[in-house]
Structures are given as C-alpha cells and as structure tokens.
Amino acid sequence: MKILSEIKEPIGSELIEFNEFFKKKLDTDVALLNIILRYVTKKKGKQIRPVLVLLSAGLCGEISERSYNGASMVELLHTATLIHDDVIDRAKIRRGIASVNSEWNNKIAVLVGDYLLSMGLLSSIDADEFKFLKSTSKAVGAMSESELMSLDKSKKFKIDEATYLKIIKGKTATLMATCCEIGAISASDDQLIHKKMEDFGMNLGMAFQLRDDLFDYITKQSIIGKPVGNDLKEKKMTLPLLHALENGESSFSKKIIKSIKNEKLTKSDINYIISFVKEYGGVDYTENLANKYIQNSKALLSSFPESKYKTALIDLGEFVINRST
Amino acid sequence: MKILSEIKEPIGSELIEFNEFFKKKLDTDVALLNIILRYVTKKKGKQIRPVLVLLSAGLCGEISERSYNGASMVELLHTATLIHDDVIDRAKIRRGIASVNSEWNNKIAVLVGDYLLSMGLLSSIDADEFKFLKSTSKAVGAMSESELMSLDKSKKFKIDEATYLKIIKGKTATLMATCCEIGAISASDDQLIHKKMEDFGMNLGMAFQLRDDLFDYITKQSIIGKPVGNDLKEKKMTLPLLHALENGESSFSKKIIKSIKNEKLTKSDINYIISFVKEYGGVDYTENLANKYIQNSKALLSSFPESKYKTALIDLGEFVINRST
Fold first, then answer.
1. Domains of chain B: residue spans and CATH
2. What is the reported pTM?
3. CB-CB neighbors (< 8 A) of A144 in chain B
4. ipTM value for the complex
5. Which residues contact B267 (CB under 8 A, 6 or more apart)?
6. Which of A152, B131, B197, B239 supports an S-S bond with B180, CB 3.0-4.6 Å?
C-alpha cells in the first residue's frame, strides 16, 4: 500500500496552488472571522476531498481553475460540517489543536459553520458553476438528513444493515461522489463520464466510512489517536456490531443490546462487546464489504486510458481500506 | 396604523396557498426530521418575509408559482437562522412553544438548522432559479458575517454608528432586500425594477431592526413578551445607547461603559441606563432615523402605479416603525 503523500504526488504542485486559491477564497472584511478561518485552515487534514476533485479532473481531461473552484466548494462544506460536528459532540480537539468551540465558544462555532456552509454553496455562484451546485445539492441535504436519521432514538437500536448503509451513504459517500463528479465536470462535457465518476466516488466513500467504523474494533489508540470503542461509548451502532448482533447467539445479542441501551458502558463492557463482534464475524464481514466497494470503484475506472491520475485513484482505493489513520 | 392582518388582506388567499406549498417543500423521508419540521412550522411568526415576496411580486406583475418558490426559499433560510439563534442564545421558548434545542437537544437543533439552510439555498436549484440564488448569496453570507462582527470582543464596546448600521444591515436588512428583489424577479424581467425593490427592502429592513432595537428602551414586557432591557442584559450595544453615549456627559458615559463591560447588570443599573439613553436623545435619534428609512422606502415606490399591493407595502412601512410586536 502506498502512503497518502505518495498518492498525492501526481498533483503535488496543483495541491499547493489549490491551497493558495482556497486561502484567498476565505478572505473577509470581518476581523474575527478572518482570524478564525486562518486558524481553522492552518492545520490541514488528509484533504481527501480536494484530492478527489483534482485527480478526477486530471483523469477526465485537465486540472483547471474550474477544478480549484470545485475543490474549494467541497472543502468549505466539509470544514463547515467538522466545525458543527465539534459543537454537537462537544469535542475539544480537532486535528491536534483546540476546536473552534473550545478555543472560542459554541456561539461563534455555529456561526462560523453557517458562514462556511453558505460560502461553500455560494462560491460556485460567483463562478457561474450551476452544475457544481446541482451536484452538491444532493450531498448537503443528505448529510444532515442522515445524521438526523442516526439520531432518531425510536429506531436507534433497531437499525438494520440497509438503514445503516443509507446513513453512511448520506454521511460520507455522497459528498465524495460529489467531489469526483465535480472534478469530472470541470474537465469534460461528457455526462456519461460525470456519472461514472460520481459512482466511483460513491463506492470509494462507502468503503471509506466502513473502514472508519472498523477502527472502533481493530486499532490501538496509539495508531489513530482515537480510543478503541469510541463509537461504542457514544452508543453508535455501526456495521461490525450490527452484523455480529444479527449472527450472534440470540441470548448474547439481547444482553448486549440491553446494556448499550440502558447503561454507561464500562471498559470491561466494551472489551466484551469487541470480542463478541470479532467472534461473530462483524469485523470480517465489514472488511469484505469495504473490499467489494473498492473492487466496484476500480471496475468503474477500467474504461479510462492509463494515466498517473488513474493509478493514483486506484492507489487511493487501496489506501482507503488499509489505512490506520 | 393598520394592523398586520389588515395589511396582509390583499394577499390573503395567496398566503394560504404559499403555506400549503411550503409544507410540501418540507416533506422528507426521515421520520424524526419530518416531526421536527412540522413542529417548527406549526406556529407561524409574523411571516413578514414571505409577505414581502408576495406583495413585491404583485406590485411588479403577478404572483405566481415562481413567487411561492422564492418565498419558500427565504422562509427556509429565516427559519434556519432562528433555530441556530436559539441554540446560540440557549433560548427555551420560540413563538410561544419550546424551542427545538429545548424540546429535543442542541445536536438536533444544529442539524435541523443546517438542513433548512441547505434546503433554502438549494430549493431554487430544482426550480432552476439561478437568479434567486444570486440574490440570496449576498444575504446569507452577510447574516453570519454581521453576527460575528457584533461578537468581536475586542471591538464590542467601541462600536461606532457606521459599524452598527453595517451590522444591522447584514443581520436583518439584506434578507428583507432579497425578499423584495426575489418577488420582483418572479414577476418582471426589468432589472431596474429588481434593483428598486431591493433598495425598498433594504430601507424597510433597516427601519425594522432599528425599531426592534428600540424595544429595549420603550416598551413594557406585557406588550411584546420580551423584557425591557433584554439586549442590555446581554450587553448588546444598539443605536439608542450608542448615540446617548456619544452625546451624554463624558463622565456618565465612561461610567456606563465600564459597568456594561465588567459587571452583571442589576435591575437598577438597567433602569439607570434606560433613563440615560432617553435623556441624551438615544430614543428620539433612533426613531428619527427609522422614519427616514421608511420615507426613503416610500419614495422608491413612487414610480409604480397605484395598486392594492403598493398600498399594502406603504402600510407595512408604517407598521414597521410603529409596531409594538
């Protein structure tokens, strides 16, 4: 498996140019907002979303100013959701530094998130990129809808696999699909190619979130900086657990559901549940499904001619299902 | 002065049709979201914003499905900001019923607000109303920018009149300008008319917020359901106070700024500040300025032929500066 910095190599200079472009997009007359936006964007994350836009553009034609515009749009939206997520989860740390809600306060964090959300949707208006907006419209609605679906208490502990897949599609995959579609739109007029890249991104995104949900059951804190059993503590029902509950001995399953429902889980509860999930195939099943999505995504690229961008997108697929970060 | 229900008369049936239209717009597959949206929209506010869209459309041509689309857009955006405002201010009550954050929780309120904000911006995409979006783009960015401007601690107590006017423009007037512009766009292709209606809405919106800020100094709790001195308690520096501080004897002004800056204000502090504001012309000055904005807004309508819509818009201006609710 290649590491992320290797995968990004073919778009190294474009990514630098994008970061400059993005910085300029964020300029505002409001002093406090300027300070916060500079603070938020100083520490870069993995930048998977802009990388997807740029690689898709390269694959389908040429990376241009239009591609940078598209990449800014998704990065703005993604940053907005992270800031609101931190308010929602009362998270103190983001990318190794204090979150906006903890460095400033909730009030400011909600407003900065709103500002970025609006700018994300509207940045494409100045550029007259109506197609970008059309593509994104699906993603943005889907994101908050799916979060709300997962919060619906009345159904939270009765989630089935189909509902779980619908939730992660809205939460993660749809925006990644948008990234690839926008990249394609910025470089080609062929609508079949737009659709193919949207599907590619959707499959990659599904695998991405499945891998994320596996972290709760397979990694050590030291590797990903997020404690094992984190989702479990927050009583998030993800596929590894859902599958094991479905397949495990029913008396065990009932006991586990009951304890998740009613109690604050202790460390030993969590360890017990993790062993249960492994024992009843939850981890294997989820890994296999993630693999399938990546195979699908690869197949969608087969009709494209070989290029450094194609190689990078395939490597990115491998990275997504093997990463420990 | 006519009361609001009288002003709404010429668009009575259209307003009912709009409310039906809006209800349908809000339909989603997500059960919890559906419940919350129905809850939120059951109690209608003054509906000034959709009323502005419909009256402007009537004035400039004809109220059509396009006008309903535009009115939905602004109502979605306005509702989104109210829900987020209640999270920010930890408000328990909105329109006489429990706020979303108190009936459910902050998490859900942030997400529902995000959903409505996105839907507001994107509802016009399905309808291919790119011009609506262009108009709204200014308003939405301006709203969060201006809130953040007013939160900037380093400058909060050194606000001058120009900055205050910039803040209320972003907070309130720009969205009202958008309402009138969108109404005009939905009924006419004449760009001069669009601009005229935008200016009309901007002037009306400035007067609307000035009147709102006067409530802190002139009304009794029983009338508007909001305690006198409410903004003061939250240390919001609005024009009546700013003007009095500028014109009052400097030793008094200094003492007042110091007490607002440092202390939790007692009831007697607040009463003292209110008398100070009245004594040094803060109320009169603000009332005069609101009147000027309404005169400007009226003048902008002079070139339109007489109609029931024109009369209603002029009456709405009178209502805005005389209302006690």
1. 4-207+309-320 (1.10.600.10)
2. 0.86
3. 111-112, 114-115, 118
4. 0.80
5. B229
6. B197
